[in-house]
Write the structure tokens for this entry.
Amino acid sequence: MIFEEKDECMEREALRALQGKRLRETVERAYNKVPFYKKTLDEVGVVPSDINSIDDIVKLPFTVKDDFRREYPFGLFSVPMKEIVRLHASSGTTGKPTVVGYTRGDVATWGRCAARTLACGGGTADDILQNAYGYGLFTGGLGLHYGGETLGATVIPMSGGNSKKQLMLMQDFGTTLLSCTPSYALQLAEVADEEGMDFKAFQLKAGFFGAEPWTEEMRIQIEQKLNLKALDIYGLSEVTGPGVASECLEQNGLHVFEDHFYPEIIDPETGQPVAPGQQGELVFTCITKQAMPLLRYRTRDITSLIEEPCPCGRTSRKMRRVTGRTDDMLIIRGVNVFPSQIESVLMSVEGTEPHYVIVVDRSGTMDDLEIRVEVCRENFSDEIRKLEELRQRIRHEIHSVLGLHATISLMEPKSIERSLGKAVRVIDSRATANKKA
Amino acid sequence: MKVKQVSVFLENRAGRMAEVARLLGDHGINIRALSIADTANFGILRLIVNDVVRAEKVFRDAGFTVDLTDVIAIEVPDTPGGLASILDTLNQAGFSIEYLYAFVEKSADKAVVVFRFEDTEVVLKVIHTLGIRALTAEQVYAM
């Protein structure tokens, strides 16, 4: 089912005209109501009347995460506080959080976009959605919650954690749709296994997994273990939250709801648009947001856009799975390494579950790469030789993919921290090692 | 005559073995025989205990990676050359041994050695024809 067929299946030319019109309105509002945008637009000498079509978007300056910090907390809002009905904030790893505000209209739009997401995965008003994203300042919980209600589905507001209860209700209530982080989905599978529960006896049809990068190999594991269709969803609070882009049942790219969120791909070094289909940094402009117009926001996520039409009938462009972030790229002995590459290798080596952590340290002048992998029932053996073979296989595959030699450490289960929100996969101790030296 | 060995994955860190011994002790499980194979990074603890089912559950509940492995417990004459003659016989029969370790206690004048063969099933089919006595699981757990 397509939730908003008229909007989601619009002719491309009509969509572009709509995007142009909405961009102009957005720039006008930003320029006239938000001193920050007045300043940045004046700096590049652009006035709202310079925006006559969506192609003029390249004239606009970028917005970055630091701008949210500088304008903390409400500097980027374009409406008085009495019109703001909701605030969310993303956990800032350093300093102040990134604050976002929504008008009543924004909340409604967000709910419809999140409903589109669920419908993309086959969800209808007949479904029961178990929402295991965290509720609170994080947009994941309330985003999918409103999406489910807007769709007309029955929503179970579980939030994250309490896995045994999650599984019990999933079984007793006949949950058909699950939303959570992909790493939490695997944790649920692990707990179900320990409890002797079989997902084949559950009613699950589809799972909506996002908020952290994951891989095709992980999709295969989740689909096998949870006995459902695993779909990649994308969103970030600065843009709105979940419901920015979602996979349909084709499972080949995420439809960007570009009548609301206009995507571009740029070269992160030069800021210039890349050729169509090429990989680069994803940039979003919110062209319908009332509380917070957002111009050319650099997400730091690395992906590319698919221009070809999708067999599902939706006419929006699709983005490929996010393969990394411009800021989580590790440079190890001069080699660019994305944690997702290492995850991919681990998943391809038979029997290795993706509970791992990457440790980068420095001994002398050399960077040391260590990958700690948990031993699970599937890959355990009572023979040293077989476990050593597993280590060698991982080491060999890492070397053939990255060209780097890594130390592979086998760890006891649960020795690596589990995540309810975003997984911490990298420990980079090089900065502190330098200070000590 | 198959005996179940409890195999446990352990990280190679100080005090880990003491924690395991305490865990079993607290749950009233008695260790009959054990061996540890280790590398610089990790180890595998192999145990023969009086209550296999319970031991496996105790380990699993405590979050260990644990598996049950089929092994054969063989009576060996407790005299110089006793083990050598058994090994010769097994070798001549073409059986490949992955590892072996001795029991903590011995029964009367015989020692008991735990063997992990590459193919336990095949060995079990013919072992009695070689004049070698394998103990039953009940005998072993009750020792």
About this structure: The mean pLDDT of chain A is 91. Chain A touches chain B at residues 194, 375-377, 380-384, 387-388, 391, 409-415 (CB under 8 Å). Chain A has two domains: 1-325, 330-436. The longest strand of chain A covers residues 294-303.
